[in-house]
Amino acid sequence: MSNIVEYIHNNPEESQRLLGLHYEQLKQLIKKAIELHNQKKELAESKKVRIILGGGGRKSKLSPESQIILTLTYLRHLTTFQLLGIQFGVFSSCSTLTKTLIISRIL
Predict the structure, then answer these.
(1) What values do phi and psi take at 7, rounded to 5?
(2) Is 48 exposed, middle or buried (0-12, 13-18, 19+ CB in 10 A)?
(3) CB 65 within 8 A of CB 30
(4) How many CB atoms lie within 10 A of CB 66?
(5) At what angle do helices 64-77 and 95-106 cross, to 10 degrees?
(6) How far, in Å, CA of 95 to CA of 52, rounded?
(7) What is the CA angle 78-81-87, rounded to 5?
(8) Helix 64-77 crosses helix 81-88 at what angle (to 10 degrees)?
(9) 3-class SS of residue 84
(10) DSSP character for 60?
């Protein structure tokens, strides 16, 4: 878990200032987004014709909760990828940041 995620959990009153959402709203958003993500993932898996078993491939470096908070941080502060990478413990040139922001916009 990144420092910013831990900080928000330890100081819920700061979530409004940091992300633009009250802590309860943030928890609801995270819960709903994870549910929606899982539904879309299951639907996509049900339509696939697999030759090789699922489960291979690269795992995400960030948890779904961290991805949502990363997106909210970016949208609220328009932070550079370099600073986001430092805050969330991923490389700024890493596709994790780009992929996270693209996926979040689709949801």
Answers:
(1) -60, -45
(2) exposed
(3) yes
(4) 21
(5) 90
(6) 24
(7) 90
(8) 140
(9) helix
(10) P
Checking phi first, is residue 18 left (phi over 0); if not, alpha (psi -120 to 50) or beta? alpha
Contact by Cβ (8 Å): 71, 101: yes
pLDDT digits (tens, 9 = 90+) for 16-49: 999 999 999 999 999 998 999 889 888 888 887 7
Q: Which residue has the tokens 């697999």?
A: 50
Residue 54, both tokens: 């699922």
The confidence score (pLDDT) of residue 11 equals 94
Paired tokens of 44: 């996509």
Q: What is the pTM of this model?
A: 0.76
